[in-house]
DNA sequence: GGGTACATGTAATCAGTTACATGATTTA
DNA sequence: TAAATCATGTAACTGATTACATGTACCC
């Protein structure tokens, strides 16, 4: 077994610790609307991940014969050990903010603040991003309001970062939008 | 050609627009210390990406015969068109904050704020994260101070998000640490 | 002129995604 | 009970990462 597994593996281990006997499909449901906001992967990967973890002896699966042939998954002792270990060993991995809007901003031409010159591409980008992040923020607020997350739970704490990020980025794009509509260095 | 390319493709197109004739190796240099903070991939992928873009007719390459057999890359007209189009078409993709520290926090047991109960795993995690994000913040501040980014440039604007994110997340982990007993960093 | 660090590329492997297929359940 | 929807899985393909190999310059 490799010394370090891909993140999807730890997500599966972590979820199985909380929800023993879940099927990959059910894991997918848990992921969407929670940790999937931060680190997502398609459902099919959960099947592959499950297979890999079984091969590594960290998970056992039991597949129904006939019908839907569901695979129910549970951690082995070694899987639990691996999870505990991952949770407690220091990481030196750094954060990446995967955001297509930011990437597009980065590659705008240097005169991007000059709306006349570029058909206000940045103004449009900003407007679209404000809208998209507003929707995301509302989703997060809905989650909090739903009360499904314990007040001091690690899930609630993690979501807090999502909330603060969305507030921050909305403010950022508003500033960009303002500079785009009213260029600070007008062409003349 | 697929209607939508992977992000690494747009990064290569965007960089080649600014640095025509660059080699994959040189692109790697540009990426590290700039957009790579947000969206990174290993150098070898730039070779593969270059090959793919050439196959799609978006890039032309010229490989030295003998010696290091460098490949210099440039956009074709169609490559430029593809880049312009990507820069101006609306995206519905959402942000993902890939952060291993947050993921670990998410999977802590519910009593995570109770340091007695878990060997203060969370306190350690928070301390480590405060340290790591402090270093990252310092790097960003160094970039700004270096003056290599134009004051109103899109690169500077993008970096601003990095700066605000790091400040936000450091504040977050300080709060987490405060709820735990492991000695926290002095406030800077 | 031999060692060290930098520059460059390729091949093999592994992970992730898309597209598809089928079984079960609800509801008009 | 047919149509629609939800649940579940697999296979084929594409993308990403690791490991390796070699070339060039620098410097003592």
Structural description of this entry:
The structure is a homodimer of 188-residue chains. With 188 residues, chain A is mainly α. Chain A folds into 2 domains: 7-88, Orthogonal Bundle (Arc Repressor Mutant, subunit A); 100-181. Chain A has 7 helices and 3 strands; from the N terminus they run αααββαβααα. Chain A has a two-stranded antiparallel ribbon. In chain A, helix 1 (7-18) crosses helix 4 and helix 6 runs antiparallel to helix 7 (154-181). Chain A is elongated. Chains A and B meet through helix 1, helix 4, strand 3, helix 5 and helix 6 of A and helix 1, helix 4, strand 3, helix 5 and helix 6 of B. Strand 3 (96-98) of chain A pairs antiparallel with strand 3 (96-98) of chain B. Chain A binds a DNA duplex (28 and 28 nucleotides) through residues 2, 6, 8, 23-25, 41-45, 47-49, 52, 67-71.
Layout of strands and helices, then pairs:
Two copies of one chain form a homodimer.
Chain A: H1 7-18, H2 24-31, H3 43-55, E1 59-63, E2 71-75, H4 77-88, E3 96-98, H5 100-106, H6 121-146, H7 154-181
Antiparallel strand pairs in A: 1-2
Helix pairs in contact in A: 1-4, 2-3, 6-7
Chain A binds a DNA duplex (28 and 28 nucleotides) through residues 2, 6, 8, 23-25, 41-45, 47-49, 52, 67-71.
In CATH, the homologous superfamily of the largest domain in chain A goes by the name Winged helix-like DNA-binding domain superfamily/Winged helix DNA-binding domain
Query: Mean pLDDT of chain A, nearest integer?
Result: 88
State the end-to-end CA separation of chain A: 65 Å
How much beta of chain A, percentage-wise?
5-15%
Most extensive interface between two protein chains, with residue counts: A-B, 64 and 62 residues
For the largest beta-sheet of chain A, the strand count, sense and barrel status come to: 2 strands, antiparallel
H-E string of chain A: HHHEEHEHHH
CATH topological fold name of the largest domain in chain A: Arc Repressor Mutant, subunit A
Identify the CATH class of the largest domain in chain A.
Mainly Alpha
Question: How many independent structural domains of chain A?
Answer: 2
